[in-house]
Specification:
Number of domains: 2
CATH topology of the largest domain: Porin
CATH class of the largest domain: Mainly Beta
Low-confidence stretches: 5-33, 95-103
Number of strands: 21
Strand content: over 45%
Helix content: 10-25%
Length: 479
């Protein structure tokens, strides 16, 4: 019985094993068919999402690699620049710093350009006066001054002098203020200063003398400058301070001037200028500065500059006035001056220049007051006229590089009113003239060496005359 029970149990187990898969398959077949497809779709979606994440990760990885490469390139470039900078610094430190280059146009003071210039000049002169002596340390010894030539037959004199008084300095200022061009100019030398002067025996110290001091605002000039009546282009190159004093207009004085460009190289200058009358009293040629003037002198000049030369036409109108013991007298004066320059070559190193002037009662403007502005007659309380005619001309000829020759001539004559008896003006200047020639050599830039000979004569109304012969040697450094 026991063995039958065991066999029965084994058979049941075997039957169960055969039936269980079928039951399982039957249960599975009983479930809906769509669940498998849904699971496949879900699986595919998850796979696709994984692929997208993978692609994004790859792209991000590539971007990180690119950024890393760029950063590395910049680092290498920075290292190269640092190395180059270190190399340059080492090169600079290895050699001394160069000296600062000279400034051609001066220096800056705020917004103002400042320039300093001028020259240092030494003159050695040997002068013979035919009819007398000229006082030492006077203007007639320092340069050619026709009214200082002695007349009257006194024994001749021969003098030698050295001087550096004509050394000159100037300061030029240039700026712009609120859109306006503003310029300033200051110039002085040591030639004509009044007051205490040095002695040739010891220190030869001389006082500075104001030459020009003015400011310009656009077209206006205010200050001391050459008179508008003067054409400075006619002054010749000379060892002398003026270079033919009797024939030239030569005045520096305070003025107010307006300059109007008219086009094609033409400019009109119009000015009101300081009045001063240098008159003589009947019977005495000594000049008197009166200081009694009331009206300013009026001047105008039309100037033209072209490629081949220059031209100047000037006019002057003025009042001459004196007061003596409460009694006053006045008269008018006028003048006309024409000057010009013709260039002889394209380099403008050679030229011919001239100035011709005529006027009545304008003596102080011509020849450094060789003639009086007018002659005061106490008996009639009148100012009698003095008319002047003057001319100066010069030719400059280049003969070699740095070498040139200047030839010049100068002349003035004076006509006095017919109301003046000749006996009462016999000691007054009648005429003067001079001729000169020089040779200049510039061995290097800004250095001039020159020698000049001049002969001049002066004649009085009485007919008395005198002459001078002068030899100058000069050395000048311009800067």
């Amino acid at each position: 019985m026991k063995m039958g029970r065991g066999a029965l149990i084994g058979g049941l187990l075997a039957a169960t094993a055969l039936v269980s898969p079928q039951v399982a398959l039957a249960k599975s077949a009983a479930k809906p068919a769509m669940s498998v497809e849904a699971r496949l779709d879900k699986l595919e979606g998850e796979v696709s999402s994984l692929r997208g994440d993978l692609d994004a990760a790859k792209a991000e990885n590539e971007q990180l690699k690119k950024r890393a490469a760029d950063a590395e390139a910049r680092a290498l470039a920075a290292e190269g620049q640092a190395a180059e900078a270190n190399r340059r610094v080492a090169a600079v430190e290895a050699k001394p710093a160069p000296a600062p280059a000279p400034v051609a146009d001066g220096f800056k003071a705020g917004n103002t350009q400042v320039r300093l210039g001028g020259y240092i000049k030494l003159i050695g002169s040997s002068t013979r006066f035919s009819d007398g002596e000229v006082a030492t340390n006077s203007l007639g010894r320092d340069f050619y001054l026709p009214q200082a030539i002695p007349t009257g037959g006194a024994p001749s004199a021969h003098d030698t002098d050295f001087t550096a008084k004509q050394s000159r300095f100037w300061l030029n200022l240039d700026t712009t203020v609120s859109g306006h061009a503003v310029k300033g100019y200051l110039e002085f030398d040591f030639q004509t200063s009044p007051g205490t002067q040095g002695s040739q025996r010891t220190t030869n110290g001389y006082n500075p003398a104001l030459r020009r001091a003015y400011m310009q605002v656009d077209r206006w000039t205010f200050g001391q400058d050459w008179t508008t009546f003067q054409y400075t282009g006619a002054l010749p190159e000379s060892t002398d301070y003026v270079g033919g004093a009797e024939g030239t207009v030569f005045v520096r004085q305070p003025l107010i001037r307006y300059s109007a460009p008219l086009g094609k190289g033409t400019t009109l200058h119009v000015s009101v200028e300081n009045p001063e009358s240098g008159t003589a009293n009947l019977g005495s040629p000594t000049l008197t500065e009166n200081g009694d003037d009331r009206l300013p002198d009026l001047a105008a000049r039309l100037a033209w500059t072209g490629k081949r030369g220059e031209l100047s036409v000037a006019g002057l109108v003025r009042q001459v006035r004196v007061e003596n013991t409460g009694v006053s007298a006045d008269t008018g004066g006028f003048g006309v001056s024409v000057g010009g320059k013709l260039f002889l070559n394209d380099a403008k190193t050679g030229d011919a220049r001239i100035m011709v002037t005529y006027g009545t009662n304008i003596g102080r403007y011509v020849g450094l007051n060789f003639a009086p502005d007018a002659v005061f007659v106490p008996a009639t309380n009148r100012l009698e006229s003095a008319s002047v005619f003057a001319v100066i001309g010069a030719v400059r000829v280049p003969v070699a590089p740095g070498v040139r020759v200047n030839l010049m001539g100068s002349y003035q004559t004076v006509d006095y009113s017919d109301n003046l008896a000749l006996g009462s003006i016999s000691g007054f200047n009648k005429q003067a003239w001079s001729i000169a020639g020089n040779l200049f050599y510039s061995p290097v830039k800004n250095i001039d060496l020159g020698i000049e000979y001049r002969h001049g004569q002066r004649e009085l109304v009485s007919g008395a005359d005198g002459s001078t012969d002068r030899i100058d040697v000069v050395a000048k450094y311009s800067f």
